Amino acid sequence: MMRLTSLMIALLAAATAWADFDGPAPLAWRWAGSTSVVPGGAPVVEDDVLYVAVGPRIYGIDRATGNQVWRYPAGVPIEANFRLGCVVSGDNIYAVADNRILYAVNKVTGQLAWQGNLMDQATGNPALLDNKVIVPVVGNKVQGFNKADGANLWADPMTMAGGIPGQIVGHRNSIIYINDAGDLKSVDMTSMREDFSVRLQSFSRSVAPVLVDDNIFINSGTYVIAIRAASGRPAWQFNTNTRLAFAPAVNDEYVASVGLNGEVFVINRRNGTQVSGKSFVLNKQPATSPAFVGTTLVVNTADGNINVVDPVIKEVLFSYRAVSLVGRTRTEEGTGPGGGAGPGRGSGGGSGQAGEGGSGGRTGGAQDPAEDTGPDWIAAAGPAVGAGDSLIVQVRDGSILSFDKNYGVDLTAPSVKMDWPGSGELIWGRPPLNFKWTLEDFGSGINPDTVGVTINGKQMEVIFQPNGELFVVISTTGNNRPLQNGRQEIVVTAKDWLGNEAKKTFVVVVDNNIAPPSGSSTTGAGGPGSGAGGGPGRGSGG
Question: What is the pLDDT of residue 533?
């Protein structure tokens, strides 16, 4: 067997989208399906219809309007859930439910073409071959069906050499998968003979390779690797020196991979060299595989942001944060800026740390830590897809967002709400003092480069969080110095990605002769006079 160094097959096959999408666009529509479980995968788009398996049904959805074309079942839903998404081939959509049934539904009429019973639960989506549908099932086996009528190909499921614990992908008449021993194998589903076997030293058992134009693309540890599907021989490999997450994205020209820290690498598909000779760091944990959509690269991150990047110049073209339709009360968990330094020798409080179960810094200044019932944010369920001028993303509550400059209109500026202090309030103007606002824009998202705050005409340094929270931290050092007694006019400005501008004025009155906020000598690092901790934020991990 051939041997490759440090290979890990990626988590999800990236969605390759041949589309015309090229940058900022408004939210055209949002469709929601009823589900009690997190959906898997991404919608499939053909002939301006989206196909998606969510909860107990499979749907056809019009790309232009978001209206339902059909649903299966049309009446009472099945007593099970589709957890893996769906795949499309020829006239049918194929989806496996957790009732151990494979459904083949006509993509035009939404009528059941046939269904097949599985011997056990599926471990991954079906692989579609020339005239076969192959489903990996529990027990290191695959079960095969005739694509035309659903007839079983074999009397019993076939046990695969070395086990087949997870995802598979189809190539001509063969399936490609990773076995328990870490071998990347290709096996012909008629003769059951092995096409090739490549030993992997580092791998994940639950994922599928990305197969495009007879080439396999995989993330493996810190490497991005291209392998020829016909022979199993490597075409090239590129070392990013960064631990990679999920699967790469592939289009005609490029391969793109994302590190666990949000570092984006774009590689020439033909020769395996890095485009522009540099990476691009989002500093956000990825939530799914990246995807090429039109001329852009879309990276979904765990904080709920859909980040659209120019893959050549490595710049963010726009970013949109998806709000959950289910909703959840915000708490103090998550990201918050550190407090400013106090008038004594103590330093400011530390920043809150984003991540799984992370807690934010302590409340800055006299800010009320009461719960915020504003919108909650939700991450994508699978890679983005594209069709025409549309960017389409399914999120974890089962809904689908479509951004399109032809079908959507956004003429509304962002909203700006002052959280602390309240406008018109009498306040202490020295540290510990954090001003906090919440900025929201559900049309096209807020461009962070346009966010600014002035106090009595002076430009302040701001901290703008991905969740829309905006802070100005008053400090005895730096630009944001303590405020003098008297009236303070505060102007907050922000634009969305389509240029709609918000400019809102707030007024507070400063009296430094009043008693300082309670807790100013006990919060933050250091002794009496130390700065306050970070303002409340919310977790973005997981």
Answer: 35
pLDDT at res. 93: 97
For the chain, list residues with pLDDT below 70.
1-19, 165, 201-208, 327-375, 517-542
| Dist. CA 13–CA 218, nearest whole Å | 9
The token pair at 279 is: 């990476």
Q: How far is CA 528 from the centre of its chain?
A: 43
Two tokens, residue 144: 């095969």
User: Which residues does residue 437 pair with via DSSP β-bridges, in sequence order?
Assistant: 418, 470
In the numeric block, which tokens belong to residue 42?
A: 């991404």
What integer pLDDT is reported at residue 333 of this predicted model?
A: 31
Which parts of 260-331 are beta strand (E)? 263-268, 280-281, 291-293, 296-300, 305-310, 315-321
Distance CA 391, CA 20 (A): 9
What is the DSSP track for 59-123? EEEETTT--EEEEESSSSPPSS-B-S--EEETTEEEEEETTTEEEEEETTT--EEEEEE-SS-BS
| pLDDT (0 to 100) of residue 41 | 85
- In this predicted structure, what is the pLDDT of residue 221? 82
Nearest to 308 by CA among 345, 326, 282, 333: 282
Q: What is the DSSP code (8-state) at residue 263?
A: E
pTM for this model (two decimals): 0.81
Is residue 283 left, alpha or beta, with left meaning phi > 0 and alpha meaning psi from -120 to 50? left
- 500-510 pLDDT per residue, tens: 999 999 999 99
Task: Tell me if 378 sits within 8 A of 396, measured CB to CB.
Answer: yes
Helix, coil or strand: residue 470 = strand
Report the alpha-carbon distance of residue 421 to residue 464 in Å, rounded.
17
CA 304 to each of CA 358, 457, 466: distance values in angstroms, whole numbers, following the listed order: 16, 34, 9
**Pick from 396, 533, 410, 540: which is nearest to 468 by CA?**
540
Q: Which residues contact 234 (CB under 8 A, 6 or more apart)?
A: 4, 225, 226, 227, 228
Please list the residues that pair with 72 across neighbouring strands. 58
